[in-house]
Design a protein that fits this description.
The complex is a heterodimer. Chain A has 14 helices and eight strands. Chain A is an alpha/beta fold. In chain A, the strands form two sheets. A four-stranded parallel β-sheet of chain A has the order 2-1-3-4, with helices on both faces. In chain A, α12 links the parallel β7 and β8. The longest helix of chain A is centred in the C-terminal third of the chain and has 18 residues. Chain A is globular, with a radius of gyration of 18 Å. Chain B has a domain of 231 residues: Rossmann fold, CATH 3.40.50. Chain B contains 21 helices and ten strands. In chain B, strands 1-10-7-4-2-3 form a six-stranded parallel β-sheet, sandwiched between helices. Chain B has a four-stranded mixed β-sheet with strand order 8-5-6-9, with helices on both faces. In chain B, β5 and β6 form a beta hairpin. In chain B, α3 crosses α12. The chains are: A alpha/beta, B alpha/beta.
Amino acid sequence: MKVSLFITCVGDQFGPSAGVAAVRLLRAAGCEVDFPVGQTCCGQPAYNAGYHDDARAVAKHFLKTFERSEYIVAPSGSCGAMVRHYAELFRDDAPNLRRAWAVADRTYELTQFLVDVLGVERTDANLSGLRVAYHDSCHAMRNLGVREQPRALLRATGAELVSWDQTCCGFGGLFSVKMPEISSAMMNRKLDSLCEAGEEQPVDILTSTDLGCLMQLGGGLERRALGPRWVHVAELLDPASDISWELHKRNRARALA
Amino acid sequence: MKLEINEFGTASKRFLLNQELRGATMRGTENWNGKRATAYGELDDVEAMKQYAATVKDHTLDNLDHYLALLTDNIEQRGGHVHFAQDAHEAREAVLAVARTAGARRVVKSKSMLSEEIELNGALEQAGLNVVETDLGEYILQMEGEHPSHIVGPAMHKPKDEVLRLFHLLHEMPLDASVDQLAAKAREVIRDEYLTADIGISGTNFAVAETGSVVTVENEGNARLTTSVPRVHIALMGMEKVIPRIEDLGVFLKLLPRAATGQRSTSFVSIITGPKRAEEPEGPEEFHLVIVDNGRTGVLADPELRSTLRCIRCGACLNVCPVYQQVGGHSYGWVYSGPIGSVLNPALLGIEEAKTLPFASSLCGGCGEVCPVKIPLPQQLVTLRQRAVSHGLMAMGEAAGMRGFGSLMGHPSLYRLANAAARFTPKKGGKLPRLALPMLREWQTSRNFPAPALRSFHDLWRTGLDRDHPADEEGVDQASNDQPPGTVREPR
């Protein structure tokens, strides 16, 4: 099966390791992965901010770049969901609307693609003994229906999923810059809950399908003296990523001691 | 109510600093969120029910003239009176005219957000009438001189201590009184008001066209008393509140209490059809229905916002909204708050009057998910943002920035240049140093912002990742025990 990776602009610049992990996960599941090098962004920042002409320009470029792809997979639910909004951008433009629908139908978030399309039940990562806080990206959950897929894959690694606050992280793209006080209040509500979840037994890792949420929550977490590390879910699931490697070493050292 | 919608920024910051109000709002909304989830869960197919309710509302909106005429005919046949009011002024005048004709001096009121919208209380008081709010929350707010902060729980933001202080001052209640004691006291005080009032003014949850009935849904019994004890009953209704048939009411009576407070049913549902009939021993002698437009026709003619008129004012979108939970209802600056307010206020008043509200959302989508009549609120927020932009209401710098973004992301050659430039961003231990980018200054007051990775994914792909065998990946010593294969992560 041929899969085109859409790394997303945030992933490209701030989380390339998540992309590397995604490539390895897809290859391990038997996919042939390509990376259309003309790719940039999905256009969501302009769309959500109300600049729909600018969003359309980016969307057209996206369609051109990925039109020939059999499947398009992104390590992000939010950017994947944005591709589904293209229909709204092109509702008065029939030819582009058809292209938008066709591309949207083939676009998936990574864990959604692994579980729903490829039927993957587990990866080779071994995270037994690890307490993981999984954060639902709102767009992954509500616009793409990604809820159980990442959880199932995480549980299959032997990790324990902790229960904590389920609300939005407060990122919201430009919202986090336009209304920073509200955005931070939303973030702190989550982080307080995360700390509470780790009171009896520490939480080791905070993870999500989306780097936007993780930059927000992780950026706030780093300001607190204690707290779990944060990492994209692809890296947790990929046995060859450095985080998995570290955990592997830690478990081995524990076994030797 | 003074229009302070475009003060959302300052008002919300002020609210954020008040831990007591925030705490009360968070507790109140979370309580109802939990109960709503359970109550929705009990229904066999809640999505089908929501869809049915939305379809009934859409059908009615598509034939609104017909159903309003039918409603009017049926009310008049029962001896009631119907008044149409184009705006808030006409609505106030309609109520005042009834009061004048009746020679009224005392008015009791049950909860009505529409009465807030048309600023009725002030007008009644100015005309020399004595007005008493009979809903406990509204009563508290009236005593405090405040406006509702929530569609369903108007005093949602009030911490218990403040209410205790108020009842201590007004009614000499002990400062450690229980909620039940307070409610009993309020009931005792307000009960006398019903008996002396000339007019009872109520809101309308639904109006049934085929029977000419208005329906109120409540828990305290105050709406039933307001609509049945005084000699004259005036019901206020937004023109979108009509539904065709009595059998359509069932689905709404199932959805509304579940969505609002997580109840299977409220304690009281009153279906009122005209004034007291000859064979009935009691009830008001006069019944008036004031049907208010006040901007709704404009919303009806707006294909993108029209479905906002499906709203049954359950408040579920307020409870679930993580922004509302942090900033409370007053920050929104007008009658309606939360996601529905962020759409309805600009829809009714014009985007210029409420340009900040559509941006008061992280677009998490919770509102759209819980809405019992499937109003696509997140989509409408984006639509209104787009209108704010096209009306030129945004800061100049932002529009220029977005044009730059569009060009950058629309042209891979420019993106490649920016990608190369990003590699020279100053960094400090994996994060961006403070003040590196002015637009991120606010972000960095509470959060770190990561520095761009040493090498972007584009760079990594070009230099080895494109090949199908991980062993080919560049710069990885497979023999080393300390490096995982394919390391690209920077040390934090």
